[in-house]
Write a structure and sequence with these properties.
With about 270 residues, this protein is of the alpha+beta class. It has helices at about 1-20, 25, 35-55, 60-65, 90-105, 160-170; strands at about 70-75, 80-85, 110-120, 130-135, 145, 150-155, 180-190, 195-200, 205-210, 215-225, 230-235, 250-255, 260, 265-270. About 25% of the residues lie in helices and about 35% in strands. Helix 1 runs antiparallel to helix 3. The chain starts with a helix and ends with a strand. The chain contains six helices and 14 strands.
């Protein structure tokens, strides 16, 4: 199909050039008076339409072509986060292109994150995929967009079968804690397909431990602070990939059995019993 359009573009260009020199030849199929102006407008119009169809000339229809809808936009001076509803599950390349279109439309150069949901999903629940532009994070990228910019692609959600299987096997995992440490909460981390445990080391610090069925373990450090009577777990500067321009913290709500991450993005998980 690409060769077909390229051939038509080439023939239209030849027709345009010939029409400016010999309109009688270029407009052999026209029964009315043949002029250079008529040849120019006819072949230039055809050429313009073909270039738009082929995608060489950008149009304003890029968004509607994919049929997605921006359900919610969160903006700060450091970051823009979009929650996007899709008509169906697109490929990774399409998700990257949607994120690129929205980022370039806003001429944004800082952090830019897109969370993707299917039509009918509740955007307060977990998205099934995300695309992130993280200009301050070196060696974080997984892919590049069409403009050759680094992006991070994450496949977040698990389908029902995968989730149930993961929950059964991951639920048995546990991190060994010392007598002075306290297990505050644990849940299945869909993003990393791991079991997560929040453990308070003392009154001012905690760790979040991720456990995988293959035996791998990772830790994140958190600072505990009480703000307006609310106990919060702030992402600590002790972490290797800490960035001080985004304040992230977890809130543990025993009354409803959830834990919520706020800051860079809102993410709520249901705690294991």
């Amino acid at each position: 199909m690409d060769y077909f359009f390229l051939t038509l573009i080439f023939l239209s260009f030849i027709g345009l050039v010939v029409g400016l020199i010999k309109p009688d030849i270029a407009l052999f199929w026209v029964n009315t008076k043949k002029t250079r102006a008529k040849a120019f407008f006819i072949y230039f119009g055809i050429l313009l339409v073909l270039l738009m169809i082929f995608g060489i000339i950008p149009t304003n229809k890029a968004k509607s072509d994919y049929g997605y809808k921006i359900e919610k936009t969160d903006s700060t001076s450091q970051q823009i986060t979009l929650r996007i509803l899709l008509p169906n599950r697109f490929s990774k390349d399409t998700l990257i292109d949607i994120a690129r279109i929205e980022k370039e439309k806003r001429k944004w150069t800082s952090k830019f994150v897109c969370f993707f949901y299917n039509q009918g999903d509740n955007i307060e629940s977990t998205a099934w995929a995300s695309i992130s532009y993280l200009p301050k994070c070196n060696n974080c990228s997984t892919d590049k967009d069409k403009s050759k910019n680094d992006v991070v692609f994450s496949l977040i959600g698990l389908d029902a079968k995968e989730y149930n299987e993961a929950e059964v096997s991951l639920d048995k995992l546990s991190y060994e804690i010392s007598p002075n440490e306290v297990l505050v909460a644990e849940f299945i981390d869909e993003l990393n397909k791991a079991k997560c445990q929040f453990i308070e080391i003392d009154n001012s610090s905690a760790i979040k431990v991720l456990l995988w069925t293959n035996g791998d373990i990772s830790k994140e450090y958190y600072d505990i602070k009480t703000v307006n009577g609310q106990r919060r777990y702030y992402f600590s500067s002790k972490n290797e990939y800490y960035e001080d321009d985004v304040e992230q913290f977890w809130i543990f709500d025993k009354s409803v059995g959830t834990m919520k991450l706020t800051g860079m993005s809102d993410y709520t998980v249901k705690l294991l019993k």
